[in-house]
Design goal:
The structure holds 2 protein chains of 2 kinds. By secondary structure, chain A is α+β, with helices and mostly antiparallel strands. Chain A has 2 helices and 3 strands. The longest helix of chain B is centred in the middle third of the chain and has 35 residues. The chains are: A alpha+beta, B alpha+beta. Chains A and B meet through strand 1, helix 1, strand 3 and helix 2 of A and helix 1, strand 3, helix 7, helix 8 and strand 6 of B.
Chain lengths: ~90, ~230
């Protein structure tokens, strides 16, 4: 795997984030946010949604997030928002 | 094919053959694979190692099964697995993430919001409730503008890449800087064509939009193999 055509200071870091994003996105974990610093470019929000930790921790976090989101989802459905593209 | 590649936790890799389907597995003692950077990297290292020779259908990260259960799974899902393997055969996954300046993107909505604020009715007769509703409307207009922009970007990208794609999985985002995240299934023989089209497309929209591209990946986004 290579990260293409993107100049940044920490290539290893971005490669790892991309790896985590791809491997875990189709796996167990979708939560949180990651912001990375790229040389010559301001801090950018890459939107890699992942969380590293034990499965127990992740399951707890996801359960808490689900509880927290329940009222919001109800609100979303009445406001016509499309929540299907949200990962977190 | 498996020489020189360690599996999860440094474990040995094995090839389990079940009819015409072969499964690459890591010998693993635990009941669960923790979602750590090391383990995720190991998962990707194995899948990428196989990808160098042939396109695999990656299982979800953390899939653990006994050999008997795995063989039963393959037997019971042979037809679906074969179809999925044909779908990704000869391909790799390429990733494109497109970022935007959220403040600039929602400028139009902000202008409409300003117009709402300038409405004397909203300011004088409706009071605090109207101000709240105006704020909510401004927020919704902002989201709608971002969503619309993300969809436009996704459509533009698909058109720019055209038949260089065998398949794609695209998610548009109406709330954040990350407008589009696309996974493209590209035939190996068409990779150069794909890259050239993507280069030309980027040139059209940079620096207003920023691109983060990576690949080639095992087709994670195009696999539904799951025990």
């Amino acid at each position: 795997m290579s990260v293409e055509e993107f100049e940044f200071g920490g290539e290893d870091e971005l490669s790892l984030l991309e790896t985590l994003d791809h491997v875990l996105d189709s796996g167990l974990v979708i939560a949180g946010e990651v912001t990375i610093s790229v040389a010559n470019i301001d801090l950018i929000y890459v939107g890699l949604n992942l969380l590293l930790g034990s499965v127990d921790t992740i399951e707890n976090v996801l359960a808490e997030r689900l509880d927290a989101q329940t009222p919001r989802r109800a609100l979303s459905s009445t406001s016509g928002e499309d929540d299907t593209t949200r990962e977190d | 094919m498996l020489d020189g590649c360690a599996g999860l936790g440094g474990g040995r890799l094995r090839l389990i053959r079940e009819g015409e389907i072969a499964v690459v597995v890591s010998e693993f003692e635990g009941a669960r694979a923790e979602a750590t950077a090391e383990n995720a990297s190991a998962h990707n290292r194995v899948a990428s190692h196989v990808l160098a020779s042939v396109t695999p259908l990656p299982f979800r990260f953390g899939t653990i099964a006994s050999e008997a259960r795995l063989r039963r799974y393959v037997e019971e899902n042979r037809e679906a697995l074969s179809k999925s393997l044909v779908r990704v055969r000869g391909c790799v996954e390429m990733s494109v993430k497109i970022l935007r300046d959220v403040a600039a993107s929602s400028e139009g909505a902000q202008e409409q919001a300003n117009a709402l604020r300038a409405n004397p009715c909203a300011q004088t007769s409706a009071g605090r409730g109207a101000a709240y509703l105006a704020a909510k409307r401004r927020e919704m207009l902002g989201r709608a503008a971002l969503k619309e922009q993300a969809e436009e970007i996704a459509s533009w990208l698909a058109a720019a890449l055209g038949d260089a794609l065998r398949e794609s999985r695209v998610r548009v985002n109406g709330e954040d800087a990350l407008a589009v995240r696309a996974a493209h299934l590209v035939e190996r023989a068409r990779l150069e064509d794909y890259r050239e089209r993507l280069r030309r497309a980027r040139a059209e929209r940079e620096p207003v939009l920023r691109f983060l591209t990576s690949g080639a990946w095992p087709p994670y986004s195009f696999s539904d193999a799951q025990i």
